[in-house]
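Second attempt. The first submission of Pentapeptide repeat-containing protein had a stray character pasted in from the spreadsheet, which I only caught after the job came back as garbage. Lesson logged: always re-copy from the clean sequence file. Corrected sequence (251 aa) follows.
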Amino acid sequence: MITMNTLQSNLQGSQDSINAIILTIDDMDSNDSGDSLAQILLLQQALEDLQLDLESSIVNLDSRLNETRAINDFSYLDFQGAQLFNFNNGLGNASLSYSNFSDASFRNANLAGGDGLFSTFYNTDFSGATMYQGIWRQSEFNNALFVGSQLSYTEFRYSDLSGANLSGAVMYGGSDWLMVNLSGADLTNTWMYDVDLRYADLTGADLTGARLAYLNPSYGPADITGVTWTNAICPDGTHASTVGNTCANNL
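This time the job returned cleanly.
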């Protein structure tokens, strides 16, 4: 908006100059000075050209601003199979809510601050994506890939990540994963610090080598039926291998 204001100020200055010259020309109507009049007319033409350029610049800038406002809004659309990987800056704060992104790819994309509420992400690839401070509530991520993704400060409350691959993903900072379905998920070598897993379904999930810390015991038990805890570090700091390869009593 600073650029827009500057252009508008320049335009107003040019218009004032043109108006002043027009008044000067009117005053010179009775003065037969051909050279002076010719010079003023040339200057007037130059200023009018500048005005047209500035007006065109403002129109173009306004159009670009409108496009920028809309470029990150993917809500209510069908992007099944879309290839949106390697967007390092263009998808920050994007809205992917109420849309279908099944089989799409967001590999290494920057989705920081984005949202995806009530959307479908079956088999979607988020590997290496930056998704911190995102809200992905009540969406379907069945068999999605989050390998090495940055998921800190995220909310996946009530979402279905069954069969998803989150190996090496990083989650911390009070991430809200309340009642998330992680059944059959690959959580190997995942970092889960200060994540709310109350009532999460971890049936058959593999947490081999996962690091779990600072999970508040008051959050209550998750469904851990069939979970693989081999070499995992339990939330209370206990190594699973020292307690029968289970964290059932160390949540």
